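Now for a typical sample entry:
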Amino acid sequence: MHYFYGMNTPIQTLATFFETEYPLNKHGLEALFALFESKTVKKGTSLLTVGKEEQHLRFLYQGQVREYYSTSEKETNINFYTRPQFISDLTSFTLDTPTIKQQEALSDIQYLVVGKADFRKLLAKYQCGNSFIELSFQKLLKQKELLEYNRVTKSPEDLYKELMMYKTHWLETIPQYHIASYLNITPETLSRIRKRIS
């Protein structure tokens, strides 16, 4: 395939991600990859703002991003992105609705981005885009159901143990106070949990 523009480039990483995560109809993927532009933003930059419609399909290449809910009283982290993957709010992007989430760069980040209008033109022409959206929503729904189930049925200590098993890259790169927010506990409680299980 012609979209491998060199080893370990953002586009090559995106292509590898598609082949691994979305083994779908590849007709049109080169056209899709050609639409993406590379962008770099500084730590602390807001990537997604509650109440605004998601206008871009964004693929994280390097860096860390937190996703969170925000009220006048507090912020609650709901996800972290630390590896190459799509970081857009697909619900807002696809349904043209305001997002209820926010995102912030926890480090300087580099990502690939394509606008909604250009992406939809591709959808009208190739099946690969439709397959991507369908598979993405299936995965998103499963992740949301698992997250909600875990938060209702498991203690913060059990949730932290799961992070140790399945999300070690979070614990290695994300500040502890953000991890505490994700677990919906105080940093002091997280510190006590870490001491108990160490």
